[in-house]
């Protein structure tokens, strides 16, 4: 290779955009393809979406990859655990960064654009010729386009099309095991947590001055509530996690009040009534998965899997984004390690090989940890495996 190597990144989410930036910073001509419109046409900066909690690992990865300040993030320094009219406040060793998912995506996309990444939104992957290193994309009302690549990065989610194409290719040995989460998620927006928690509870537990940078949690063996300080003014984003079918069952029986009074004992009646109202009119989301591929990179074909395509995780523990950011950092480190091979035929193969060595074992361990985490394996449904 004498010209800049071409990297095609499939998927414009957080891991795809960050991979694109990392490769562009290291001398690649990067072409990113995303099937959905640019987030700026879907969300406004003031919209509220689900929050991502970036721990020290995720924050360190962003810093090392040169991502500038994340807009509208809130550092959470404490965790308040509410159990049966008692509250225990724990201080984090290092604060987490709570940020709306679309704001994090905005920030990383801006960084990728500044790095010179070519953005192609509303392009759907149709096929990949792994032997000739050609990816084919289609856009609504347009003819399909074929794009040659030197490196193909599959960052297209837990139901990755690239990964499925690899499985279907008889010349490539890849097996994938997928387990679907049997938990459902629904968010409500409330006034600040100070107006939600019963003052009597705070008084009796001597928590008159709980710091505002606090994540509040309520949990039992089956369900979980997370109460996060929202980065949008004096509001609280509360997320409920429970087994699939729980919310529909409560709607039919119209007994949200009893359920919430047991789980959220120290929350005011007025707040519980508002939570019930929003849960009753809303629709829960489902569908997160754990993914175990037999490999996350294919040096001979110059393809690698990134983010949820490589190590999908249940949303219950919220570690998927942190793991994805760490994987991109491994890709950057692998590329840096091959600097002396730039321009040679083995350059891309070496990058993919080192990436696999750096990341595969940790990625599998992370998925295993999430699978055995909150909710337990009894609440998981096997979708398919091979």
UniProtKB/TrEMBL annotation:
FAD-binding domain mapped to chain residues: 8-167
Alphabetized UniProt keyword annotations: FAD, Flavoprotein, Monooxygenase, NADP, Oxidoreductase
GO MF, one example: kynurenine 3-monooxygenase activity
A Pfam family per the record: FAD_binding_3
Cofactor(s) required, per the database record: FAD
Gene3D superfamilies, per the entry: FAD/NAD(P)-binding domain
Key word Lipid biosynthesis present: no
Keyword Flavoprotein in record: yes
Superkingdom of the source species: Eukaryota
GO biological process: kynurenine metabolic process
InterPro entries attached to this UniProt entry: FAD-bd (IPR002938), FAD/NAD-bd_sf (IPR036188)
Name listed for the protein in its UniProt record: FAD-binding domain-containing protein
